[in-house]
Amino acid sequence: MAGVVITGRALVAAVAVVVAVLLGGAAEAQQLSPNFYSRTCPNLASIVRSGMASAVRTEPRMGASILRLFFHDCFVNGCDGSILLDDTSTFTGEKSAGPNANSARGFEVIDAIKTQVEASCKGTVSCADILALAARDGVNLLGGPTWSVALGRKDSRTASQSAANSNLPGPGSSLATLISMFGNQGLSARDMTALSGAHTIGRAQCQFFRSRIYTERNINASFASLRQQTCPRSGGDANLAPFDVQTPDAFDNAYYQNLVSQRGLLHSDQELFNGGSQDGLVRQYSTNPSQFSSDFVSAMVKMGNLLPSSGTATEVRLNCRKVN
User: What S-S linkages are listed for this chain (predicted)?
Assistant: First the structure.
């Protein structure tokens, strides 16, 4: 009978190991470390940096696009690479959700970096970690700060279109909604205002700011007129305009200067400076770029620590677009 008992315990232990490998969750949060791949993939940082440098050199806007992918990934069940999954005949993921459809971009850049990473260290680095590093490097390559990225995330084996539709703030969000939605992720109003500074780079489609430039009063008249030149009252929905009219491809604090002068492109942008609780902070950031950079980095690190809940099936995907 003793032999049978030992065998049972061994079986339980083996099952526990398999479960631990397949399931991500709160325990993983304690394992994130900047040195996670120091032995298993020592060239990771340089591979990602090189891939992002090439992408940004080809199209500066790509730095903003990758940053947005990271943000939209982390706000939906944690930073798990779920936004990178393609839809299939039996699966509908996050790419087709309202906040992502026809606007989320840069997937091919992550694919290219993943290919290089796999060639160097096969089956080792998650797509979620690659996206986190790429977002950091895109910011830095456009003149913004850099920071240490804690690594060790795993890739989710599923995605949630419904969560993408409900968790991500839209271009028409009020200040109260922004504070609430970021608060749901454990991010403070200060974090929200600092992270919104990501709009110091990138572009937005006409359909997302048309209402503001034609109907809102808290907008600089000359700025509204400028934007109306490429965003007619009807048609041209996909026409692009830079978030930051001053330095559209430089990561700086001009975004906040624009808000103070009522030149925020989206309704949700201008909500940060519209007689509300964040006005004072926006003024600080508009005159103190180092304060903005410091708070932005802190908020990015905090957001990057959002992980899937305990019990979520995870893996290291070999192809970021599909489960293994």
Answer: 41-121, 74-79, 127-320, 206-231
- Copy the structure tokens of residue 297: 């980095």
CATH assignment at residue 207:
1.10.420.10
pTM: 0.90
**115 assigned to a ligand binding site:** no
CA angle 193-199-204, nearest 5°?
Answer: 135
Considering the candidates 61, 68, 72, 317, report the single residue annotated as catalytic.
72
Q: Is 267 a catalytic residue?
A: no
**How many structural domains is the chain composed of?**
2
Q: Residue 199, annotated ligand binder?
A: yes
Residue ranges making up the domain that contains 233: 175-302
Confidence band (pLDDT; 50, 70, 90) for 2? very low
Q: Is 43 helix (H, G, I), strand (E, B) or coil?
A: coil
Task: Name the pLDDT band for 23 (thresholds 50, 70, 90).
Answer: very low
Question: How far is the CA of 152 from the CAs of 34, 123, 282, in angstroms?
Answer: 8, 13, 34
Within a domain: 9: no
Query: Is 267 known to sit in a ligand binding site?
Result: no
**Interval 2-17 mean pLDDT:** 40
User: Per-residue pLDDT for 10 more than 90?
Assistant: no
